[in-house]
Amino acid sequence: MILGFAKSMLHSHLRRFRTLGLLACCLAPVLRAQVPAFQPDSEVAAPTDLPDAPQPTIAVASLEAPVTPEAAPSTSFQFNAVHVPAFDPFAKAVDPENCPYEKGHDPRCHVHWGQLAISTSFYLAFQNTGNLYTGYFYREETLTGKWWDRYVNSVEGWRWTRWTDQNPFLDDYIGHPMQGAITNAIWIQNDPKGMTVVQGNNREYWDSRLRAFAFSTFFSFEWKLGPIGEASLGHNGDHYFYEKGELTNETGWVELVTTPVGGLIWTIGEDYLDRTLIPRLQHRTHNALALMGIALLTPTKTTANIFRFRAPWYRDGRVVKANSFFSDPPDDLESSPDAILVGNHEGDSIPPPTELAPVASVAVAHPPLAQNGPYIGGVHEFGVIWGLSLFSSGPAGEVKYMPIVVRYSYLMHLGQSFALRYSPEMTALSMISWPTPTTYSSDNQLPAEQRNRGYGAGLSPFGFQLDLLPSHRVQPFFSTNAGAIYYDQPVLGPDLEPVSTNGGSRLLATGDFGAGVNIFRKRRQALTLGYRHQYLAGSYHGASTQANTFYVGVSRFRTREGPDDRPPVF
Fold it and tell me: Which of 208-212, 394-398, 403-407 has the least mean pLDDT?
């Protein structure tokens, strides 16, 4: 029965298929008449004739202005923004201006810890040297007793229950906020996620400034309580003394708070000026003196630039050019520090030592010197050095001497193993301190006077410098100078008598000889470390001293194109 039912169903389906086949045969002639026959040789539209798909554009939103896409490059995606720099997550290298918006862990956007440590160390050394030089008690307390025990006592003696430390108002509420702003600037200029950020009410700006605030807080505690600060050099907190009739050890919360908090407020104020006023003023001039005056409107950024050996007006987020020896290097030189560049550029990078052309290959010919070989340095040098002498010898006793010198040198001869320079100097500021007879105050406890101090300036027109290994990154040298310095009062009175009663001399003749080393970070930029044995002598009634001055300096070199600026070559 089941088989009979299956056969009947199969016959029914076969009849339906035969009916559809007959219908298709009847309709085929009609369809052929409507559709033309296929011609194998006829042209077929090429795929290239199809219209191009629109180029997809991903725009970063801006809160200040609508996004206007620019011309699309040949890449698959185009990122455009008006005020917020674009970030391409597929790029192998992240540009500095993109680091604030980078969400990954690109090493190029990490903090420059090495340079941060160098700049911070220079700043700490500058502050400690200033305290030791200007404060008699800083030197006396630092060198008296067991240093480690007194340092521990200074930390333990900190008055955590007091706000004030009995220091002047300008120290607590002006000087220390400025110190905090300087440390903020040192952090920001070494933080790729904050160095190019323009002030604005956005997460990138506030995150970067809060990171700087944390660093400033750490620096403040180190300066007051750390092993390289006032607790160790000067031993603040170790002992009590009377200051204006009040017993104090000069410790309290005030400077631990005003340094980071006041520094953050100061930094925000300078950021506002740097966004609104400073760029307009810098755009109007390229004169170095004018740019220096403009830089003084943001003193903490200017100071931080000096501690990283940059021009005072330098900015990471924009180019500021000056017509001077301290002009910022071209962008292409800064972006490729390892490139081998031969040309008349102030910021030329140094090629590896194995690729340096020998100095002997520099031909004495009419083409510009810059085209003859990648030698290090330049014909003209302009630099600044800062020195300090804490011990001396001579009839004037224990004399302290600190010069700030502006120097120029001209390359007279260039050889394979040495170079000779004419190097006159101008002493922009000379501070000299010498002992005076000790008298005692009414309570017979503290000396009323220990030392006298004079300030002066001078010129040393006779100077020469012999450079060794002129084709190397590290160049030792020997130097000598002679000139005079004029002071604001008679100095170095004989027999340690007060200068008001025993003469002294305002005009001191100076002469020195010494040695040092130039370390070239780039072909036209050098860091100088050196020592000078300097002789200072007054008139017949004046005394003399021999200062042992250690100094550090920075120099920029320049070679102008033209036959007049080519040094003679051996």
Answer: 394-398
Task: For residues 404 and 322, give the distance between their C-alpha atoms in angstroms, rounded to a whole number.
Answer: 23
Buried (b) or exposed (e) across 268-302, using 16+ Cβ within 10 A?
eebbebbeeebbeebeeeeebeebbebbeebbbbb
| Cα 324–Cα 329–Cα 335 angle in degrees, nearest 5 | 170
Lowest mean pLDDT segment, chosen from 146-155, 210-219, 440-449: 440-449
Distance CA 570, CA 560 (A): 20
Domains of the chain: residue spans and CATH:
107-328 (no CATH), 362-565 (2.40.160.20)
In 469-543, which ranges are E strands? Answer: 474-491, 505-522, 525-537
For residues 215 and 260, what is the distance between their CA atoms, to the nearest angstrom? Answer: 9
Assigned token pair, 73: 């490059």
Regarding predicted confidence, which is higher, 415 or 500? 415
Q: What is the pLDDT confidence band of residue 416, given thresholds at 50, 70 and 90? A: confident
Cβ contact 569:410 at 8 Å: no
Mean pLDDT of 523-529: 89
Among residues 457, 435, 429, 455, the alpha carbon closest in space to that of 447 is found at 435
Burial of 143 (0-12, 13-18, 19+ CB in 10 A): exposed
Contacts of 48 (CB under 8 A, 6+ apart): none
pLDDT in tens, 222-278: 999 998 888 888 888 888 877 777 888 888 999 999 999 999 999 999 999 999 999
Residues in the chain: 570
CA angle 230, 232, 236 (to 5 degrees): 50
Q: Are 398 and 456 in contact (CB under 8 A)?
A: no
Q: How many CA atoms lie within 13 A of 446 on its CB side?
A: 11
Cα distance between residue 471 and residue 487, in whole Å:
41
In Å, how far are 494, 501, 538 from 497, measured between CA atoms? 6, 7, 15
This prediction has a pTM of 0.57
Return d(Cα 450, Cα 136) in angstroms, integer.
8
Burial of 234 (0-12, 13-18, 19+ CB in 10 A): buried
In order of 104, 323, 381, 481, 488, the CA distances from 426 in angstroms are 51, 21, 14, 11, 17
pLDDT tens across 13-32, in order?
556 555 555 555 555 554 45
| 171 phi, psi to nearest 5 deg | -65, -50
Residue identified by tokens 């944390």 is 214
Neighbouring C-alpha atoms within 13 Å toward the C-beta of 342: 12
Cα–Cα distance between 181 and 301 in angstroms, integer? Answer: 8
What is d(CA 548, CA 425) in angstroms, rounded to the nearest whole number? 18
Two structure tokens written together for 151: 């340092």
Whole-angstrom Cα distance, residue 115 to residue 310? 13
Q: Are 452 and 442 in contact (CB under 8 A)?
A: no
Residue among 254, 229, 239 nearest 145 (CA): 239
d(CA 69, CA 79): 8
> How far is the C-alpha of 183 from the C-alpha of 121, rounded, in Å?
11
| Residue 375 C-beta-side C-alpha neighbours within 13 Å | 31
